[in-house]
Write a structure and sequence with these properties.
heterodimer; A: alpha/beta; Transcription Regulator spoIIAA; five-stranded mixed sheet; 5 helices; B: alpha+beta; Heat Shock Protein 90; globular; Anti-sigma-factor_SerPK (chain B)
């Protein structure tokens, strides 16, 4: 996965595409940690083009959530596709993470708390 | 799909114990799903169950390193699929996990351990999952009925 993060009104948008699995989870984790080390604190994870996630991919999302909780940052997950939502639900992630159905909703949420 | 309820399709997917073999696993399952007319979501569920087992084997089965084969054998009938995943690494029963995966579900973000979900997914997705160690091989056999 080639992650091209973008910035919008101080919010860092991370688009996830294709698969987030044991083969590329570390790439995504490294990309997130790099942005965090640059001082980014508000993240939108855009799952709109992600078709598949496994426990290795979930691990990255949990690492991000924990790091941001510790640094008093914030993250919102948007536009989960069917398999991804099911895996989040099986894991209990739907109750511990902030999940919204559209990217616009996520941006509004993150901006409101700025 | 065949009208004969007795038909069986058997296919072996042989992988090396490297993480970059995952695409081959997925291609193998996709091809089988296309041949049998399985819905895309069913194929994804089988991919998830197989990935979790294969990734565990890649990371933990061969601490001494080296190239080894992981055997993924699929037997499909019109209404069920049986998959066995075998390796010749250190004897390890993945179904005997230390923590109760269900207890993870209600944990707060802060106290939640990172990891420990893979085998839980396998058990949740498949109808029957069994482990045996025989002839120097670890083998997880799992069945899904459609």
């Amino acid at each position: 996965m080639n992650i091209q993060a973008t910035e919008q009104d101080g919010i860092t948008i991370i688009p996830l595409e294709g698969r987030l699995d044991g083969g590329n989870a570390t790439v995504a984790e490294t990309a997130f940690l790099q942005l965090l080390s640059e001082g980014k604190q508000r993240f939108l994870f855009d799952f709109g083009n992600l078709q598949y996630i496994s426990s290795a991919g979930l691990r990255v999302i949990l690492v991000a959530a924990k790091k941001l909780r510790a640094s008093k940052g914030r993250m919102v997950c948007a536009s989960l596709t069917e398999q991804v939502y099911d895996v989040f639900e099986m894991s209990g992630f739907t109750t511990i993470l902030d999940i919204v159905s559209t990217k616009e909703e996520a941006l509004e949420k993150l901006q409101a708390e700025a | 799909m065949s009208d004969d309820p007795q038909f069986t399709i058997a296919r072996a997917i042989r992988l090396y114990n490297r993480i970059d073999e995952l695409p081959r696993l997925n291609e193998g399952l996709e091809a089988l799903g296309a041949d049998l007319g399985w819905p895309g979501r069913s194929v994804m569920n089988l991919m998830l169950a197989c990935e979790e087992l294969v990734v565990n084997i890649v990371h933990y089965a061969y601490p001494e390193g080296g190239e080894h084969v992981i055997e993924v054998d699929v037997r499909a009938t019109s209404d069920s699929v049986e998959i066995s995943v075998s390796d010749g690494g250190v004897p390890f029963n993945p179904l005997e996990t230390d923590n109760d995966p269900l207890s993870l579900l209600d944990m707060d973000l802060e106290e939640r351990p990172i990891g420990g979900l893979g085998i839980f997914f396998v058990q949740k997705i498949m109808d029957d999952v069994q482990y045996e160690h025989a002839g120097g091989m670890n083998r997880v056999r799992m069945i899904k009925r459609f």
